[in-house]
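Input (structure):
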């Protein structure tokens, strides 16, 4: 009897931990998002970089990168570690289960400045760090075991993904695949609770719609399966190029001062944004336009390559933003371009350009992050359409296989972590 009572108390404690973690992480992530929007409103009249004069588009990320880099150079090296890589490092280092407050502050402010000034990075990578650290810090004032500290961080990360995309199940799978949190019922009960809380709070504040509005999508016929194989090959190749640029840049720049790295990232983004302002900042409005088939093939191709180059170099140069959103953007552009090509060569059997864009998004994400299940889960939750899972599985599997055959390397996060840990210690940040 005593054993049963003790067991019930443990389960109740775990559930409450997940509830608190989900609330704290979601509030922190939503606050982060609102700060970005406020900063964008102050800089941009209507939140669109395309309305700025070309010379302002050129200078804005350069100035933002320089100011941010000078601030980072004044910080101790350990406080410059941010993003998903920082969370991975702490979770998989013995005795490192606690996430410091200083790094959370660095990520919050750095992410807002980087994104608002037009750098081609996203809010999802910072959100994972902010969510994980916010939840983890809540447990540091009370007596928790190292395993409970670990679980709180995982809860916060899951709640963050659930909150930013309105995809609670994808948040859970992300924790398993990307953060490599071992599965156990006792650990995932609070993680599930936190993810649900994140999605509910996000819906209460932002509404019930998913992050991307997608039309009704389905595979026209089985005759389009070869098209999906081609799309998988394309996105797998693009993900390999993306990872290779990130790795090469990160290796060369790991000892550079942040003021130099961030300014160079801003210079490249400014030059590319001068011609294609759609790639600046989070770029979800441009992605939404591609998903509804409103963008012509010339602009799609231009955005594909400029976004890929701007983001991969920026991530390699340690700009404190994320890469999840840009991989979705590049994959969406690749899918849109592929769909437009197929529609030109032969009438599609029912599949639309929007269909190929959505499948391209998840194929690129799955191959770059080495997270095929998280990508497929996100696909299901974003579209609310089980009919798209079969074509999505084919494209994701093909992209993943292509990437592995070309590179034979780990996920982009693991590569960045390995570079960060190379001796002598790097002064860079993670993503």
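Output (sequence):
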């Amino acid at each position: 009897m005593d054993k049963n009572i003790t067991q019930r108390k443990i389960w109740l404690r775990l559930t409450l931990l997940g509830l608190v973690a989900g609330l704290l992480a979601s509030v922190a992530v939503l606050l982060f998002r609102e700060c970005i929007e406020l900063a964008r409103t102050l800089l941009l009249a209507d939140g669109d970089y395309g309305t700025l004069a070309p010379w302002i588009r050129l200078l804005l990320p350069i100035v933002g990168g320089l100011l941010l880099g000078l601030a980072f150079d004044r910080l101790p090296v350990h406080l410059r570690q941010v993003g998903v890589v920082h969370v991975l490092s702490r979770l998989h280092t013995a005795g490192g289960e606690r996430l410091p407050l200083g790094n959370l502050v660095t990520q919050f402010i750095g992410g807002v400045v980087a994104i608002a000034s037009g750098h081609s990075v996203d809010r999802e990578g910072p959100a994972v760090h902010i969510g994980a650290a916010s939840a983890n810090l809540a447990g540091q004032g009370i007596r928790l075991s190292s395993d409970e500290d670990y679980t709180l961080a995982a809860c916060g990360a899951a709640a963050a993904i659930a909150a930013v995309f309105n995809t609670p199940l994808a948040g859970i799978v992300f924790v398993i695949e990307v953060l490599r949190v071992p599965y156990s019922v006792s650990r995932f009960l609070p993680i599930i609770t936190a993810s649900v809380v994140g999605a509910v709070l996000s819906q209460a504040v932002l509404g019930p719609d998913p992050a991307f509005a997608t039309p009704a999508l389905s595979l026209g016929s089985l005759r389009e399966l070869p098209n999906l194989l081609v799309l998988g090959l394309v996105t797998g190749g693009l993900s390999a190029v993306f990872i290779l640029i990130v790795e090469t840049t990160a290796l060369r720049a790991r000892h550079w001062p942040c003021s130099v790295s961030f300014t160079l990232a801003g210079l490249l983004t400014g030059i590319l944004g001068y011609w294609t302002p759609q790639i600046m900042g989070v770029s979800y409005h441009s992605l939404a336009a591609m998903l509804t088939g409103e963008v012509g093939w010339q602009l799609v191709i231009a955005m594909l390559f400029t976004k890929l180059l701007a983001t991969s170099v920026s991530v390699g140069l340690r700009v404190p933003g994320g890469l999840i959103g840009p991989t979705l953007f590049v994959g969406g552009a690749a899918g849109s371009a592929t769909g437009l090509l197929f529609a030109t060569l032969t009438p599609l059997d029912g599949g639309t350009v929007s269909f190929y864009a959505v499948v391209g998004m998840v194929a690129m994400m799955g191959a770059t992050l080495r997270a095929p299940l998280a990508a497929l889960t996100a696909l299901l939750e974003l579209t609310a359409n089980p009919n798209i899972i079969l074509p999505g599985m084919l494209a994701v599997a093909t992209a993943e296989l292509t990437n592995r055959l070309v590179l034979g390397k780990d996920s982009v996060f693991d590569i960045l972590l390995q570079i960060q840990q190379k001796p002598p210690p790097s002064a860079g940040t993670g993503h």
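Notes: Residues 220 and 351 are 4 Å apart (CA to CA). The chain has a mean pLDDT of 88.
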